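Repro:
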Amino acid sequence: MNTFAKYIVGLVWFSGLFAGGSSALAQPPAPAPREAEAVRPPVRNRHYTRHTFTAEDGRKLDYWLMTPAKIEPGKKYPLVLTLHGRGGNTTAAAILANEPMRAQYPCFVLAPAVGSEQVWAVPAEFARLRGDAMMPVVLAALAQVQKEHPIDADRIYVTGQSMGGFGTFGALAASPGTFAAAIPICGGWRPGDAAKMKDVPIWVFHGDADRTVPVDRSRVIVEALRAAGGHPKYSELKGVAHNSWEPAYNDPATWKWLFSQRRQQPAQ
């Protein structure tokens, strides 16, 4: 390359410093906005349909809803709020979708789903679960579903497994007057909130061989509920590990008890 050509190339490069465009010193493009994490269905069954709820603060919640097989005019039905664990599955929602259960206990089932960076509700002192607490959004979505469907306000129930067990207690602590009964499985909660939820019928399940969520988590809150004047049922399953939801949800007595409860009715 002769001297004149080198001069022209250098001049073009130098002028590019100020002209913007594709020069070496131009600012890199801004990163694309991060898309919301896609959540997996907490239950896979043809009776459920997917919906998205947007809260007033802009947060979105995907949820799956099952309606009774047949809705009779003028009749209202129970609703079961089922909260999945960190693995993303809700066994309760799957069992309630079985045809014999749909015939015996016609009800609505609301199964919300959260992503890996979210939780239902977790006390600050429980360090293992961290994330955006979605319980306020869940309760707002529940209120919206109540407006849209014939739901018996005196027969709204909540249950959950593992992270959902914590979330079940969290739902009661946040809005005890909403629920007729609760079944938290292998979860736990802070004893200081026991007085808020002592009047709600609660049946707690936990395996004594659970190495993921220690059984003491349930023992402590059950003891606190009783000390506060509540009457929780407690089933500690001998030799059962973290999957205590399997024997709990597969026992017909569990569902018979749940659907017999009504809001403001003394615990049985």
